[in-house]
Amino acid sequence: SSEALRQDDFVGISFWIISMALIASTVFFFLERDRVSPKWKTSLTVSGLVTLIAAVHYFYMRDVWVATGSTPTVFRYIDWLITVPLLMIEFYLILSAIAKVPVGVFWRLMIGTLVMLIGGYLGEAGYADVWIAFIVGMVGWFYILYEIFAGEASKINAASAPKSVQSAFSTMRLIVTFGWAIYPIGYFFGYLTGASPADSANALNIIYNAADVLNKIAFGLIIWSVAVSESEKSL
Amino acid sequence: SSEALRQDDFVGISFWIISMALIASTVFFFLERDRVSPKWKTSLTVSGLVTLIAAVHYFYMRDVWVATGSTPTVFRYIDWLITVPLLMIEFYLILSAIAKVPVGVFWRLMIGTLVMLIGGYLGEAGYADVWIAFIVGMVGWFYILYEIFAGEASKINAASAPKSVQSAFSTMRLIVTFGWAIYPIGYFFGYLTGASPADSANALNIIYNAADVLNKIAFGLIIWSVAVSESEKSL
Ligand SMILES: CC1=C(/C=C/C(C)=C/C=C/C(C)=C/C=O)C(C)(C)CCC1
Ligand SMILES: CC1=C(/C=C/C(C)=C/C=C/C(C)=C/C=O)C(C)(C)CCC1
After folding, report:
1. How far is it, in rounded angstroms, from Cα B53 to Cα B122?
2. Mutation pick for ligand 1 pocket among A114, A183, A208 (CB with most ligand atoms within 8 Å)
3. Is B138 exposed, middle or buried (0-12, 13-18, 19+ CB in 10 A)?
């Protein structure tokens, strides 16, 4: 009986809803691939991979949460360690669909990702002071923001993209700014308020869950929408 | 033995039948996508997602029912919380296939949905008086009906749709009126007759199950049928 989802476990309910929404999104992206022109197909494939990987992790995380009420930190970071690089690949693909992009752009986005996630994990898993780890993570994230707003990636886009791609690119940037900002807020409420992590587990998980909906599903839908409209143009 | 479906458990049998019918419908909608022209494909994708998500939930609900004989309220609402918005998206897509639709239409349909479902959940899960929660849910539903019969959504359709789309739209409206009306009837027999909820569980679940067949499967079939006939025309 401790294994069944209780109707007052709203964090558990959010894990459930999201795991289902992720499955639906995965099927959606994979099916809709056939509607877009070849150069957009890989972008939809990658969007579906992000939600597929997340769906699998959400099933595990959901079970951990429903059975024990504790935060499934290790599964979350395994998920992020695969899906965030995939999202960086999406940026790279969007740019590559319209211009020749130096591969250094890609590696710099990866380094920012690793610093951000390793920092966060060391803090959440108890290997480092939660504040120091937080700052390290923030540095990684700011580096990504720098690259897409002021670095080489941003210049490529401004120079040569058609309107709809430019607007997709800037929406994706806004997601990396405001959508991703939800994660450090979750970390803050989970670890930095002085309350014990067990007491903050509800806030932490519900905030991370909401952030994942936006950053995995909505992010993919933006790519789908530009892919569909660009493909219809070229018909 | 308490885990196996008994041959006199007719509510359990209905859970079983519907979970199978939902799988079949999902496969049907996904396979038939390749027969219709591109602008109709997304509608079939979404129909299949509705039945896919419902199928997964029906497997869980079936197990809860067969093992415990109790109403799987939380799973039903998680299902509805994802599938009803998808049905609202279907309306929006049907309209968008033929005209430019202001995005406000979509958000207003969403708000009606949320009021309806949150109202219902508060009542069924015991967070609010069952009558007050019922009335709140009814208000949300009436608001949806207003929007599709008298609001902006209805005007768009009347103005610019071809015959077959107009008739699909009006069938969909009838489903939202009479098909959806089955749910509050289920709620009524489940909670408002004065009998204890445990005694009313059979009536509640069999009515909700029947309603889901109509509103998920038949609704999708209507969309499939207009998509096929419109696509044949344009060949
Ligand atoms: C800045 C910062 C963080 C940011 C995490 C982010 C931004 C995760 C993004 C995950 C995504 C986008 C997954 C999508 O699939 C941490 C590690 C929480 C804590 C340290 C400070
Ligand atoms: C009006 C009303 C209700 C309506 C529920 C409906 C209309 C659910 C529809 C579900 C569908 C269509 C699922 C399809 O996938 C409740 C919440 C039972 C009780 C409160 C009053």
Report:
1. 22
2. A183
3. middle
Concatenated DSSP letters of A172-230: HHHIIIIIHHHHHHHHHHHHSSSS-HHHHHHHHHHHHHHHHIIIIIIHHHHHHHHHHHH
Token digits for A116?
């951000």
Residue-wise pLDDT tens digits, B37-71 = 988 899 999 999 999 999 999 999 999 999 999 99
Record the tokens describing residue A83, joined without a space. 């899906």
**Contacts for B62 with CB less than 8 Å, ≥ 6 apart:** B12, B15, B16, B19
Answer for the pair B49, B90: CB distance below 8 angstroms, yes or no. no
Among A1, A17, A20, the strongest candidate for a mutation testing the B interface, having the largest count of B CBs within 10 A, is A20
Give dist(CA B105, CA B154) in Å, integer: 10
Residue A164, CB-side half-sphere exposure with 13 Å CA sphere: 14
Q: What is the CATH architecture of B10-233?
A: Up-down Bundle (1.20)
For B81, the closest chain A residue by CA position comes to A17
Nearest CA distance, B82 vs chain A (angstrom): 7
**CA triple A57-A48-A172, angle to 5 deg:** 100
Q: Which of A228, A232, A213, A234 is nearest to A25 (CA)?
A: A213
3-class DSSP assignment, residue B181: coil
Q: Which two tokens stand for residue B176?
A: 């939202």
Taking contacts as CB-CB distances below 8 angstroms, the residues of chain A near B86 are 24
pLDDT score, position B99: 74
* B108-126 confidence digits (pLDDT tens): 999 999 999 999 999 999 9
